[in-house]
Design a protein that fits this description.
Helix content is 67%, strand content 5%. By secondary structure, the protein is mainly α. α6 runs antiparallel to α7, α7 packs across α9 and α9 packs antiparallel against α10. The longest helix is centred in the middle third of the chain and has 30 residues.
């Protein structure tokens, strides 16, 4: 029991460390670079599961890992340069530019339609409902988290950013988006197979995040067509590797949540043989349990 608790605490600690490192990465690198590189965590998880959990990594899974590595390398080599920002007010000016306001309004409008209308009706059958909500809201989460990270960085360097109301607005937006994103991501994972949810969510979340970052921070401003095309090819390669890697995972065994769930109805009858009554199913076979009633019981 102590060993299980120790492993759980260690796992929670590593998750926290990973999220802190991811947060720091958004401060020093463009979101269009950090988000696609999240596929590397899938590779690490698959390799660790192969050695620690004895989950066999098949040949196609190895190919998926290789594609993720190649695609990530292409993205890094052709990634845009991080824009230097000197204050939270400068980030606020980028956030209220007409193009990004239009994007934000579109995301909020589509998300409300998905939550209020589509989710109650089609959420249990269409995987794109929950993943779409997570992905679109997630792009706003990344933008606000990046703004908060830059504000913290500037504050630690001696330029206090906590005195600006924009910092607190970014903070409230980040908290709201994170809660909404996690809620619907959990709903997607509870409703559909993880092997299906993960690649779809990764593709949609990364696409919306790159698009939002390109609008707000103008990551690709001044880049050549060749660099943009190369990064797009790298992203498609990573996406292909992720899909292959997840498609080769062994499906989780079904969980029995209700021990009293009735079995499929069958027609049974009793036949008399050698003075005894035996139960027979409709297919003529004897069930695993046989109810034997002695003939003298009915006398």
């Amino acid at each position: 029991m102590l060993n299980v608790d120790h492993n759980r605490n260690f796992g929670q600690f590593t998750v926290v460390v990973g999220e802190i490192a991811n947060f720091v990465a958004y401060i020093y690198a463009p979101a269009g670079l950090v988000t696609p590189l999240g596929a590397l965590s899938i590779i690490v998880s698959a390799v660790l599961a192969h050695f620690l959990l004895k989950e066999k990594l098949q040949k196609m899974g190895m190919l998926g890992c290789l594609l993720c590595i190649v695609g990530s390398t292409v993205i890094v080599l052709h990634s845009p340069q991080e824009r230097s920002l000197s204050s939270v007010e400068e980030i606020w000016e980028l956030a209220i530019q007409p193009a990004f306001l239009l994007y934000t309004a579109s995301v909020v409008a589509v998300t409300l339609v998905l939550i209020l209308y589509c989710s109650p009706r089609y959420g249990q059958t269409n995987i794109l409902i929950y993943t779409g909500i997570c992905s679109m809201i997630g792009s706003l989460t990344v933008m606000s988290v990046k703004a908060i990270g830059i504000a913290i960085k500037l504050t630690l360097e001696g330029t206090n950013q906590l005195k600006y109301f924009q910092t607190w607005i970014f903070g409230m937006v980040a908290v709201t988006c994170i809660i909404t994103q996690l809620n619907y991501l959990n709903m997607a994972l509870d409703t559909f197979n993880t092997a299906i949810v993960s690649p779809i969510y990764y593709a949609m979340f990364t696409s919306f995040t790159i698009f939002a970052s390109a609008i707000m921070f103008k990551d690709y401003s001044g880049q050549s067509v060749t660099s943009i095309a190369s990064e797009l090819c790298g992203f498609i390669t990573v996406l292909s590797g992720t899909a292959i890697l997840h498609s080769t995972r062994e499906p989780d065994p079904p969980l029995i949540t209700d021990l009293y769930t009735p079995l499929s109805p069958k027609v049974s009858w009793y036949i008399q043989s050698n003075g005894e009554w035996k139960q027979k199913d409709e297919d003529g076979s004897t069930p695993n349990f046989i109810t034997i009633l002695r003939q003298d019981y009915f006398k």
